[in-house]
Amino acid sequence: MHIGRLYAEAFRNLDTLEWRPHRHFNLITGDNGQGKTNLLEALSVAAGLRSFRTAKLGDCVRFGADKATVAVQLERQAVRVDLAVQFRASGRRLFLDGRAVSGAADYLGRLVVVLFVPSDLHLPHGEPDQRRRYLDRVVFNHDAAHLLDLRQYERVLTSRNALLKQHKVAPIDPQMLDVYDVLLARHGAVVARRRLDVLRHFTPQVREVFARLAPAGLEADLRYVPKGFASEEAADEATLLLALRGQRTRDLALGYTSRGPHRDDLEFVLAGRPAHAHASQGQSRTLVLALKIAEIQSLEAALGEPPVLLMDDVSSELDEHRNRALMTCIDALGGQVFLTTTDAAHIRVAAPRQIMDMRAGALHPGPTFGRGGQGSTGPENELQDITGGSE
Fold first, then answer.
1. Which of 3, 73, 163, 187 has a CA positioned 20 to 30 A from the CA of residue 96?
2. Model confidence over 268-308: pLDDT tens digits?
3. Residues 230 and 210 in one domain
């Protein structure tokens, strides 16, 4: 799949923008604060109706504007699809092929993007909520229904937490809590099971890619750590309902829900031990690199074509060896890539490309259009043995 046209209006600092990107490689250069990340954010919103930087789409509307619009013309398996989202602080409107659609279910799953941002490099050592968000993005790309189920769960969770907080001020009706427990268990079990199902297929690919990147004998793994179930096998509605009821007294005292998929974690494992406690920075970054390459490959197998890759100035965070491995992967991808950078010297690909320069929210043609430019990534064996120690 590839994006043939991007239109954005009143999206953060971007000028009214109409751009026909290259179907393979698009390099967006420019200083910090010029709008490069905003452009990738607009593409991400067009794909999944969520920003990777804020929980509220209204935050993306340019200051002083009433609403923002993002529209893409997508070609997928030789079929053209037009997607558009128009949003303001009070809500949004979705359009498919020029006609308004009533719900996200009719819109989602058509444009599939893999996002790679610098914060991803800290996933093994980061906070659990970062890893949950990453996992949910992976799951959503494999099954667009996940976002709808996750939103249902989050709505019930918000209502249950509001009731628990109210208890600190005045007595509440226990039957209302019973209702929320049943709904939370129902939606929570769906969210947890889908995460587990995707991980079962995805984790072996991560292991395989990591084995190509790391020294012989060093193995990686991913483990789902549930907070509402005793084990992965027990991840069902009845078990979660028991956990919620068993924690009710504690939750009333805390004022929030302490069990459920919103508390689960994704554990990165290296050589059989938790990466956050035992992996060096270099090893952790290699593990994340394997994660992203495996994600692209997994989606390509599932979709029958490569997804669109969005990379926000990641190369500047990698050392030469890991950056070379990433560029090799991009060259081999064959799909469409949007990559931002403050320094084009980091980008070494042989794929056909378009270079654009972002200045104060406006795109300008860059110095080169076509093949070559910064040079080739080198042979396949550049993917070997890049783990190393701490940087």
1. 187
2. 999 899 998 888 888 888 899 889 889 988 898 888 889 99
3. yes
Q: Tell me, what's the pLDDT at 390? A: 36
User: Are 228 and 329 in a shared domain?
Assistant: no
- How sure is the predictor about 376, in pLDDT bands with cuts at 50, 70 and 90? very low
> How does pLDDT run across 300-338, given as a tens digit for each residue?
888 888 999 999 988 777 777 777 777 777 777 778 999
pTM of model > 0.85: no
Same domain, 359 and 369: yes
Q: Which residues pair with 18 in a beta bridge?
A: 7
CATH for 273: 1.20.1050.90
